[in-house]
Every structure is written in structure tokens, then in C-alpha cells.
Amino acid sequence: MTPHSLSSEPDPAAGLSYPPVTARTWTLPNGLGVIVQEDHSAPVASVQAWIETGSIHESQHLGAGLSHLLEHMLFKGTPTRGASAFAQSVQDAGGYINAYTSFERTVYWIDIPAKGVPVALDLLADAVMNSTLPVEEYTKEQEVIRREFAMGMDDPDRVSSQALFATAFREHPCRHPVIGYLDVFNGLHRDEVMAYYKSRYVPNNMFFVVVGDVKAEEVHAQLAALFEPHPRRSLPPVYIPIEPPQLGRRVSHQEFATELTRLHMAWHIPSAAHADIPALDVAAVVLGSGRSSHLYKALREDLAIVHSVDAWCYALTHGGLFGVDAMLDPGKREQVESEILRLIAHLRESGVTDRELNKAKKAALSHQLQAVTTMRGRASDLGANWLLTRNLDFSRDYLGALQRVTSADIQRVVAKYIVDRNLTVVSLNPPGTETHVQGAEQAITAGEIQKFELSNGLRLLVREDHRLPLVSLNAAFKAGLLAETAEDNGLTRLLSRVLLKGTKTRTAGQMADEIEELGGVIGSDAGNNSISVSARVMRPDLRAGLGILADVLCNATMPEKAVSREKEAQLASIKAEEEEMTVVARNLLRAELFGSHPYGLRASGTPESVARLTPDHLRAFRDRHLVARNGVLAVFGDVHAEEVRALAEEVLGGLPAGEPALTSVAASPALAASREAEVIKDKEQAVLMVGFPGTDLFSPDNAALEIIDEACSDLGSRLFLRIREEMGLAYFVGSSQMGGLARGMFGFYLGTAPEKIADVKAALNEEIAKLAQDGLSPEELARAKEKNIGQQEIRNQSNGAFAFQAALNELYGLGYNYHLQQRDEIAALTVEQVRAVARKYFTQPAITAVVRPAG
Known about the structure:
By secondary structure, the chain is an alpha+beta fold. It is about 45% helix and about 20% strand. The strands form four sheets. Strands 1-2-6-3-5-4 form a six-stranded mixed sheet, sandwiched between helices. A six-stranded mixed sheet has the order 12-13-17-14-16-15, sandwiched between helices.
């Protein structure tokens, strides 16, 4: 993908259009850029500060991670605000704050209900211009980032990605990881960070993007006032060397504590604005995007030599890479490399068919439309366009360039760039597998949810939202872990994968071709209490998209070959989970807390249980659970409710009525006494979790536990401030509530250094005891309420997410409008109610799960 997001021109016959940019722009006298797009379709906004500096701009400090460290430090204090004031102020306004650093930029953003925009502008302006980088905070944050280094060293995906860039680039500074190198980072001093901050964080090297329910003139006026005291400043030039042409293949194969091989093959390409990038983007889509792509069909489906594979195009302002990634068993690496090169040679020699070309272009438009469904997505798109080209309509202009791409263009760019002398091959492999290591439109308000019932008993939820020509469909059924046993554990997850592998009328390849030709996607998922199939299409393709989804639900055949292949993939994912410290800890905690209850099972199953599963198991499970009276279909988007009702009756009326499942569920076992469980892993970090028996979705205590979870999971939470900020004992810390049709759990978690386990355990238990005794303070409760309600509004911008949650609420018996009831319950909570619930649940026996290295 290019940084501005892949796009394609609309199909005029379908009547689709990509929304034009209606943003207003200003350049203040001090050089600060201001971009504001009014969008009154939802009462929220995204406020973003873009600093045109990243890891490639660190000059003599390259490899120190200066930009990343500064991102961590920016909210640690100004002359008028303390270290916790930023996060707490955002929470008070019901918003969410975060930031990221990349090679070319550092971006700080706040998603917030519209009434909080003045607060967000004030906070970001204060942070980017007035941060003091306090000495005591600098010392603590250094330790936090050291923990981040250690976690990165445990992550095979991050290690292999950094190895790719370090091997492919020899001169350009993106050969260095954004976070830097630990030894160079350790030599960095606060005064060097302050000097970098003062030289790069100047008004004429930054711009603000605001998209949402705002008035542009008011945003402009406030930013002009906030930045009036800050004059334009001289911006020291930064020399960024041009990467010289690669004249021969580069290869690096490394060993790592992993069970699967990560393979990367990449070729240098020109900068994002180059005329050849559109053709390279289309080539990447045809080659390796989706289940109908060349790579997926050949390597994953036909030959079964990879567990996953995709192609990508990543272009920066100073060059980039075209790449293919694959995950596979280590003994198949040479075969996979050979097959990838064979498919690329075929693309170079034969080009693509008109069907493939049109499919790629339509998929690209769908992808771009989906990227701008939220205020944050639209703001990010505008920011990237401005950063790269100073043209806010760059995405729209790029549409035209993509539309003009021909098969001959693809052959030409593949022949020019995707050649052996320009190839870099990097892999990360299990220990012992290598003998050596080598070096403004009118706003349209979305409607309320409407509920219907089809003749077979299937409940239908429809929400009309005509802002963009997109439709999200989600069919959910009660099933999941609650319907499994230790003998067939993993069955729901396997079924969710096999459902898409063929029907009575379509092969898996035909299904992938059809949906991707529509510019759509289809997927499936499994949870603790449900299984779901979802799809997204553009408005003119609703009938076709719903027809494919109905075919999956009614006619999936579970072919033996596909079941066998997906079992292999699921077994591989079970192995991969054993490398994820947090997943290992969560599995351990649930097994100890729930015992033989289904909630104690693993989402993907065990190697033994998955190996026992057969197509007959899957069909029987499907025939019992994927039935009309056990399901809910949600259709949210650019639709008309009555038309959807008639169409759903037509295409899904044949789904068997069946009977509701899980009408009664086994109670979770009681926990007689607290105990600790431990797993030793060959890693550098430790993860600690403490879990208490929780509640089910129907308990009157649920709202209070949701708010306690909200209050304990943010950057301004008591756990974060005490354990991470004040004591410096953890890299991440928070809480999680798991509720379902049966009683779930409430857990606290953190990641730390192995030598700090005793101290961090004592500190966490002390904070839990305080919470059990005192509950939340009035200030904490008010912030958590605002945050919870604000995040719900932000989340429900996405029709896909909203449809899924509404379907589950209706499925579980809470009602499709439960989000409104929940909001009222949360708003009505008192300090006394929350204290009583905290005391009730956090004075119970608990399970402590620890995953740590040996020693």
C-alpha cells in the first residue's frame, strides 16, 4: 500500500463517487498549516497535529530513536499542565488520545465528541509547543521504552520487518528502525532530545487537520490565537541520502525463537509521487490481495505450501519497496521463493486479464471508501495527502491515475523494477534450521435501527445511512466456545474458516473472485458465545453481496481438502500463539479460573482436539447452529429498509428455521481460594494477570464493571499513573472485562521485566485492594463515564462495527438498542454503586497467572 491509501476511480455505470474534498486551508503568518473539513454526519471530530519530522530526520542521532522518544515525552508536562493532565482532560471530554511515529512524520491525534474540540486543540497546541520534558519523567520514560525494545525483540514479525529494511536499504536512513537501537538509545541525553524538539517542532514544520462536526472558521480562529505567541523559526536542513540503485540480490536468513518461518521478498521502487506507482499498486493487488489473488490461489489453496501470503506496495517521499510476505513451515522456504518468482515472471510476461484489472480497480475504490468512513480516517487521508504532495485531492487525483492503468503498464513496471538484481530476500526461521546467519457536501444523518422478522424466524436489523455508497452485512449466530467441549475445542473457529471454502454452486476461488470483483470483502469469525459471517459491498452490489453471504450460510460444503488445509493453518496458529506472551498468560488465566467450563477452553482449540475434527463434525455443528431462529442479520449502510427486508426474505428465506441454541448454559464454577499459576517461556519479558470471577451480560452489576474497566484501562488511569509512570515497573498495564451468556471474569494485566515481578505484583495487588475498598473517586467516575459514552459514539461511526455489535446485542437477548440502555445505565451510576460493586467482586478469591523466562 502507498501511504495515502490505494484508490480507484468510480465505475460510472454504477453511479458511485468518491467524496470530493471540501476542506478549507489556511497558512498562519508563522507558517503553521490549518486544514479543516466540516462533516456534520456524527457529533464527533478527529483533531490531529502532524509534525513533519520522523526517524529519518534525526541527523547525527540516526539510530537513537529521538523522534519516537519525543513522542513518548510530549505529554509529560508543560508550564501549565502536569504529566497526567493531558489524558485526564481528554477523558473528561469523552475522547481518546494517541500518537505514532514513522519514518517521515510524527502525528498526535484526539478523537473526541464535537463539544470537546476546543479542549483538544488547546491540549495539542500546548503539547507541541510548550513541553518541558521534565527530568524525572524523562528517566521513567527511558525505562518504559527499554521495555518496548525488549518486547520488540520477542516479536518475530517486528524482528523480521526490521531485518528487511536493514537489508534492503544501505544509504537511506529508513534502514534504521523508528525506535532506534538500544545501545544508541541508552547513550541519548535529555538535552539532546530538547535540542531536537526545539529545532523540529516549530510552527512552519507542522500542520493541524480537523475533520468533524465543527465550524471551520472557529477552528481557524482558535489555532491562530493559540499559536500567535510562537513565531516562525529557522528550520535546519537535514541531509537525506538517496538510496543508490541495487545491483545484485541481497539475502539474509536469521534464526529466532519461533516455530514458523517468516519470509519477505522485496524490490526497490520510486517515490510516492512517481508516475509508475499506480501500476505497481495494481500489480500488488492482482498478485497478492485477497483470496482470488495469484499468490493466494497458487500457494495457499492449490499447493498448500504457505499459511498466509500477500503482496504490498509501500512508497515514501524518497523511494520505497514492493514486497511479498509469507508465513510457512521452515522446510518449504525454497519452494515458496521459487513459486513466488514464477508467478511474478508470469505477470511480467502475460500481464493481467481485463477481469483482473477491473476487479483490482473496484477493490481499490472500495478500500479507499472504507478508509474514510470515520472522522479519523478522513483526517488521516487529508494529512497524508498534504504531507506527500501539498494537494488535499491527491487521493482523488490518484483515482484517475489508477483508472488509466493497463495490462501493458503492469508488464512494463514489473519488468522494470521487479527483477532479480533489485531483489532482497529476508527470512526469520526456527532455531537449528539455518547453518549460519547472513549478513463540503451536505451532511446526511444516519437513521435509527429497524427490526424485522423473516418468515423462517431470522431476525433482521436495518439501519439506513446514506453518507457513503457502502453497505455492511453481518450474520451472527449463538455458538462459540459455549457450544464446545474439550473433545471438539476449536470447532467453531475451524468452521468459521471452512465456511468460505466452497458451496454447492461456488468453489472457494469463484467466491473470492465474485466478491473481489465487486470491490467487496467477506469474512467470518468465532467468539466465546457466537459465530458470524460478515461482508461489505458498495451500494449497487447489495443483491450480489447478500446472495454470496446467503450461499455461504445455506450451502457451504466443507470439502475434505479444505478442511484438511484449514486444520493445518489452525494448528500453525496455535503454535504461533505460544510465542505471544499475553496470549499464553490469558489462556493460563482462563484455564485456571474456569476449569472445565467452556470459557476455560482456548479459542483456537488444542492440537489434539483440532486434529480430531472432521467435515462431518463441522456439518453437524453448522446444521444445529447456523439456523434462522438462532441468528440475527444486520444490514447497515446506504440502503432502504423495506427493500432490504424484501431482498433478505428472497435470498435467505430458505435458511432452515431450526431452534435457538444455548437457551440454558452451564454456570461458571466457583473459586474456593486464591492461587497462582506460572508458565516458563524462552522470552525476555514477563506478563502478569490477576483474574476475578465476573458477571454475565444480564447482571445489574455489568454497567459498573464496564466503568471500572474503563477507569483502569487508560493512560490517565490509577494503574497506569502509579505502576508505569510513578514506579516505572511496567511497560503496559490495564484491565479487561469478559462478559457473556455465562458468568465471565474481570482481569488486570501488565507487562514487566522478569526481575521486577515481585515488586510489580505487590503494587498491582495493592491497587486492586484500594479499588475494592474505595471504588472510584468522583473525578475518576466522571472521566470514565465521558470516555465510555464518547468512545461508543466514535466506534459507531463505522457501520461494520455498529452492525456487528447490534447483531450480538439482539442475539444475546439484550435487544438491538441495548447501546442506548447501556448509555443511560452508565450515566446514572453513582460513586456508592460503583464502590459496592468493586467491593463485591474484588474481595473474592482470584487467580494470578505469570508467564516469565526461566531463572
